[in-house]
Structures are given as C-alpha cells and as structure tokens.
Amino acid sequence: MRPTPRMVYAFIFLVCAGLIVNAIFYLQEYLGLDPCPMCILSRYIFIAIGAIALVGALHGPRRTGARLYSSLIVLLAIAGIGVSARHSYLQHFPPKIESCGTDLAFLLDAFPLSQALPKIFAGSGSCSSVHWKFAGLTIPEWAAVWFLIFAVLAIRAAFRRERP
User: Considering the domain boundaries, does residue 20 fall inside one?
Assistant: First the structure.
C-alpha cells in the first residue's frame, strides 16, 4: 500500500512535533543546552513545516492541494537545510571571535525582518560550539537530515499517481 498524501503529511507533522518536544524537553531542559539563534530559527522552520503538514493531513488534499502543501514544505525544508548548513559550517570552522550575536528576540523586536535575518546568520560563538552528537552527527546536521527527508516525502506526496 502506497501512502496517501494525507498519511505523508500526518507523518511529517508527528515527526516535527517529536523533534520540537525533544529539543525543548530533552536537549534544552534535561541536558541544559541553551539554543543559539540558528537553533531557534531551525525550530521555527520545523514548527512551520509541522503546521503546514497538519493542515495538509486534516484537509486530505487531491492533486492540486497536495502540490501546494508539498511546495510549501519543500521551500521551508530548503530554507532549513540552508540554516543547518550555515550552522554546521560554523561548528566545523569556528570563527576566531566567539560571539553568537544578539539574542533572536531582541533582533526581531529591534529590526525589521529584512535586517534581522542577516544579523542572525552572522552569529557564531555558541552557534559554533558542539555540545551534543548522536551517531557522529551534530544537532544542525541531524536537522539537515530531517529537512531533506521532509522535502523528499513532500515531493513524493505531490506527484503520487492516483490509481483508477
């Protein structure tokens, strides 16, 4: 049985919810790892993907709707891969000056989004620290893996052929 778009979106939503719960309750609360601005941005992208996937799962779209939901998920996943790639780069090649920049909430309050985003990506410091690994991959590397999985699943859901 091939999964329907509704099943794919439900899976994506559940995984996103699990990743956010893991990030907050295990990594942040239990292990005491404070998220850097790039981690927070990745969380927002996971939340946005999860929200779109939830709407798609509840809607149960046909071809056009599935392509719309999948397109949004793929675009967000590409953005998430970009954030994860930059974050991973900072971890593998830490800058000489250790400073992750200003707090994300302050940046978004003080600057318009077009000026805040470049300042977020300029972060380093705690963004370059590696405090946790699983199977040899860091947090942003695992995030990139999940973003890629979501993009592939969304593309498959968008181009699923209906059986006559």
Answer: yes
Domain range enclosing 11: 5-158
The domain that holds 77 is classified in CATH as 1.20.1550.10
pLDDT tens, residue by residue, 67-104: 888 999 999 999 999 988 887 887 777 766 655 555 55
- pLDDT tens string 101-122: 555 566 667 777 666 666 554 4
What CA–CA distance (Å, rounded) separates 140 from 157? 25
pTM of the predicted model as reported, rounded to 2 decimal places: 0.77
Can you tell me which residue has the tokens 């971890």?
91
Q: Is residue 123 part of a domain?
A: yes
Is residue 26 situated within a structural domain? Answer: yes
| Cα of 146 vs its chain's centroid, Å | 8
Are 27 and 118 a contacting pair, CB within 8 Å?
no
**Could you tell me the two tokens for 139?**
């947090």
Name which of 143, 127, 134 is nearest 34 in CA terms. Answer: 127
